[in-house]
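ok, trying the design again with the full structure, not the truncated one.
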């Protein structure tokens, strides 16, 4: 819910465009934060009815949230490619089965995913991805 409130605050700082029937750049972020708020309220209400008096902190959720937060911050400094390689690798490594972790699938998955996303967005759609301050690509 905190993330949804953060999105709600930042969405309202986006400038409106006057393009006639275009809903503007605020539409999709609004849909996302409303969905996050609804899901958060549902999770809290369900959790309170099942477990009274216990703190619900899932270690995996907290670590994955930290990885996502670091990814978002690293985008502005290292750009899309380096940040996404790191993010996909860490996510794959963290979410895979502890007994079956292997370097090769994590590296291959991060490389393939990063290149495919880069190709689709940059080459096909013509959308520029973040370059970053310290990037060489």
């Amino acid at each position: 819910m905190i993330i949804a409130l953060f999105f709600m605050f930042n969405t309202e700082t986006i400038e409106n465009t006057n393009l006639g029937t275009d809903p503007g750049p605020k539409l999709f972020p609004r849909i996302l934060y409303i969905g996050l708020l609804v899901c958060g309220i549902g999770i809290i209400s369900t959790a309170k009815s099942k477990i009274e008096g216990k703190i619900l902190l899932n270690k995996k959720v907290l670590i994955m949230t930290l990885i996502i937060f670091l990814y978002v911050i690293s985008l502005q400094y290292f750009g899309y490619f380096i940040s996404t390689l790191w993010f996909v690798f860490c996510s794959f490594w963290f979410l895979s089965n502890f007994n079956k972790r292997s370097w090769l699938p994590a590296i291959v998955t991060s490389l393939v995913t990063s290149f495919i996303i880069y190709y689709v967005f940059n080459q096909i759609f013509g959308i520029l991805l973040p370059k970053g301050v310290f990037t060489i690509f």
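Keeping the full-length input from now on. The first helix runs from residue 2 to 11.
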